[in-house]
Design brief:
By secondary structure, the chain is an alpha/beta fold. The chain folds into 3 domains: 123 residues, Methylthiotransferase, N-terminal domain (Rossmann fold, 3-Layer(aba) Sandwich); 226 residues, pyruvate-formate lyase- activating enzyme (Alpha-Beta Horseshoe), CATH 3.80.30.20; 57 residues, Nucleic acid-binding proteins (OB fold (Dihydrolipoamide Acetyltransferase, E2P), Beta Barrel), CATH 2.40.50.140. It is built from 14 helices and 21 strands. The protein has a 6-stranded parallel beta sheet, with helices on both faces. Strands 17-18-19-21-20 form a 5-stranded mixed barrel. α9 runs parallel beside α10 and α13 runs parallel beside α14. The longest helix has 24 residues. It is globular. The N and C termini lie far apart (49 Å). The relative contact order is 0.08. The structure holds iron/sulfur cluster. Iron/sulfur cluster (SF4) binds next to α7.
């Protein structure tokens, strides 16, 4: 049976799709990249914003005509949306044949095999806070970078976030399991690994914390670059910063979600840190690694946010000078605390504030990229550039796409490139022989 998986949302979902592919392949299903030959279409979904859910529902509607012409085609929904909406999904669209939650992927083969009749519907969204998918090695779909899940779930309950409700409580994967997966990945030729979790800094397995884990991964010979996502500012310890600075393979790049620059809003978000604490971390990081690139997430128009409070976020962004910021207008999610707050900000104001943040960050990012001109960077060459067959493209250690004249024999190699220009969010350079 051919299975086509379509993935939405964050890297955790990308990694989960790879895990699901591995579970299904073991039971002799084939994973295909062409939807036209699929017997089963699985949508791995995201619930972080309403927009993300609407997109998936729209996509499922699009596939209804395919189902009409191929009677035995099955459509399934997995991931956060499956967990959140459960059986309701089948009421919303009866062409959905199965709904499977994030802790029940081991049951997918049996669920799919059990759908005999046209109107059969299966739903399993039981929460299992102990499920860590031990000993299942995902089929990594990338060529150069592999995502490795080190923990699942989240205990933080930020008041705007649905994740703790859809992904359950935090649990760390056994250290040996992680190390053997990364060792296997290295043997397959991957040199760049990203450690994933909702809050990797709180990784804890027996006596190994995140700093120790980083040290252990750094020792794996075949791996040349290590990144990790997502970090929580309240849990990013001095030890982790020290290990980042001292470990040659841990890249000078960190995504650290600030969300707001106002202490009262941060408290209402239940983020567990102040704006001063956040600022201090960025300074420590830059002191330890002067070339580090720091990226962030910011929410505009959180319930109750006054003009002054918004201005504090704007000012702190300006002061910190992030390399890049993912900015969002606040989107209420049913089931979260913040969605119940009475002082919701009108959409027009949220959009206005978002626009201001985007404009500010565009200027900062442009400047940050210009500052790279003249520097020599190590680039992991990934592909021929989309714009010219005579140019190669890859990423620097600080996660900037870099393009330079070269040929395809360089793909998969690490090269030194002198940066000569910055065009939009791309660096241009020349190869140093
Ligand atoms: S740390 Fe906060 S924002 Fe991140 S997944 Fe957990 S609850 Fe959501």
């Amino acid at each position: 049976m051919n299975i086509y998986i379509e993935t939405y949302g964050c890297q955790m979902n990308v990694a989960d799709s790879e895990l699901v592919a591995s579970i299904l392949k073991k039971e002799h299903f084939s994973i295909v990249e062409d939807i036209n030959i699929a017997d089963v279409i699985i949508f791995n979904t995201c619930s972080v914003r309403q927009h993300a859910e609407d997109r998936v529902l729209g996509r499922i509607n699009n596939e209804m005509s395919r189902k009409r012409s191929k009677k035995d085609l099955k459509i399934g929904v997995i991931g956060c949306m499956a967990q959140r909406l459960d059986k309701q999904l089948n009421e919303m669209n009866s062409s959905i044949d199965f709904v499977v939650g994030v802790d029940q992927y081991n049951h997918l083969p049996a669920i799919i095999n059990g759908l005999y009749n046209e109107n059969d519907f299966e739903c399993n969204t039981i929460v299992n806070d102990a499920e860590i998918y031990k000993d299942i090695y995902p089929i990594h779909s990338g060529k150069f970078n592999a995502f490795v899940t080190i923990m699942r779930g989240c205990n933080n309950f930020c008041t705007y976030c649905i994740v703790p409700y859809t992904r359950g409580r935090e649990r760390s994967r056994p250290i040996d399991d992680i190390i053997s997966e990364i060792t296997e990945i290295g043997k397959k030729g991957f040199k760049d690994v990203s450690l994933l979790g909702q809050n990797v800094n709180s990784y804890h397995y027996k006596n190994v914390n995140f700093a120790e884990l980083l040290k252990k991964v750094n020792k794996i010979e075949t791996i040349k670059r290590i990144r990790f996502i997502t970090s929580h500012p309240k849990d990013l310890s001095d030890d982790v910063i020290k290990v980042m600075a001292e470990s040659d393979k841990v890249c000078e790049h960190l995504h650290l979600a600030m969300q707001s620059g106002d202490d009262e809003i941060l408290a209402r978000m239940n983020r567990g840190y102040t704006s001063q604490h956040f600022y201090d971390i960025t300074q420590k990081l830059r002191k330890a690694m002067p070339d580090i690139s720091i990226t962030t997430d910011i929410i505009a128009g959180f319930p109750g946010e006054t003009e002054e409070q918004f201005q504090r976020t704007y000012d702190l962004m300006k002061k910190i000078q992030f390399d890049y910021a993912f900015t969002f207008k606040y989107s209420p999610r049913t089931g979260t605390k913040a969605a119940e707050f009475k002082d919701q900000i009108p959409e027009t104001i949220r959009l206005e504030r978002l626009k201001k943040l985007i404009e500010l960050q565009q200027d900062i990012t442009t400047q940050k990229y210009k500052e790279q001109i003249g520097k020599i960077k190590e680039i992991y060459v990934e592909q021929i550039s989309k714009k010219s067959e005579y140019e190669m493209a890859g990423k620097s250690r600080d996660f900037k796409i870099t393009v330079f004249p070269g040929d395809s024999t360089l793909i998969g190699k690490f090269v030194k490139v002198k940066i000569t220009d910055a065009v939009g969010w791309t660096l241009k350079g020349e190869l140093i022989k």
